[in-house]
Amino acid sequence: MTSLANDLRIACQRVSRRVRFESSAELSPHHVSALSNLRRRPLTPGELAEAERVSAPSMTRTVNCLVDKGLVARVDHPDDGRCKVLNLTVEGGAALDRIAAARDDWMVRQLDGLTKDERALLREATDLLNRVLGE
Questions:
Q1: Exposed, middle or buried by CB within 10 Å (0-12, 13-18, 19+), for 33?
Q2: Model pLDDT, residue 88
Q3: What is the CA radius of gyration of the chain?
Q4: DSSP line for 101-114
Q5: Is the dihedral of CA 104, 107, 113, 117 positive or negative?
Q6: Mind listing the pLDDT tens digit of every residue in the chain (135 residues)?
Q7: What is the pLDDT of residue 134?
Q8: Which H or E element spans position 74?
Q9: Which structural domains are found in the chain, ordered by start?
Q10: Are 71 and 95 in contact (CB under 8 A)?
Q11: Nearest of 48, 51, 35 to residue 94 by alpha carbon
Q12: What pLDDT shows up at residue 124?
């Protein structure tokens, strides 16, 4: 069981890395991850840093870059005038859409040479992985 767990973990990490780094050069993976969190809901910089599991200074640099690119907007916190809330802009949403399409296109190219049976097996494996992850 340990060998399977190790092999599966490594394969999933490799797929994730390849999709993130080979499919799009528009934004770095950590920028895409931050934008994806903001697509779910607006967050304070501290909440975003916590969600991304990075330090506040690191997130400040990321947010400043995303604001400068027009992908994120800072707005006043409704309950705390000392704090800001980060919102995904229309441009930020469009960037995420383009990146998702590029990632899907990359994956389609990788699957292109597989047989019908191999693709069916990957469908089953995908469903099983989602079940293992509780999704």
A1: middle
A2: 97
A3: 18
A4: HHHHHHHHHHHTTS
A5: negative
A6: 788 888 888 988 998 888 887 766 778 888 999 999 999 999 999 999 999 999 999 999 999 999 999 999 999 888 877 889 999 999 999 999 999 999 899 999 999 999 999 999 999 999 999 998 887
A7: 87
A8: strand 72-76
A9: 2-132 (1.10.10.10)
A10: yes
A11: 35
A12: 94
DSSP alpha helices (H): ranges in 23-89? 29-40, 45-52, 56-68
Give the span between the Cα atoms of 44 and 22, in whole angstroms: 30
Amino acid at 2: T
Structure tokens at 46: 């501290």
Q: E strand or H helix at 86, and its extent?
A: strand 84-88
For the record, the structure tokens of 7 come out as 């092999």
Paired tokens of 126: 């995908």
Query: Which two three-digit tokens encode residue 128?
Result: 């099983």
Per-residue tokens: 3: 């060998």
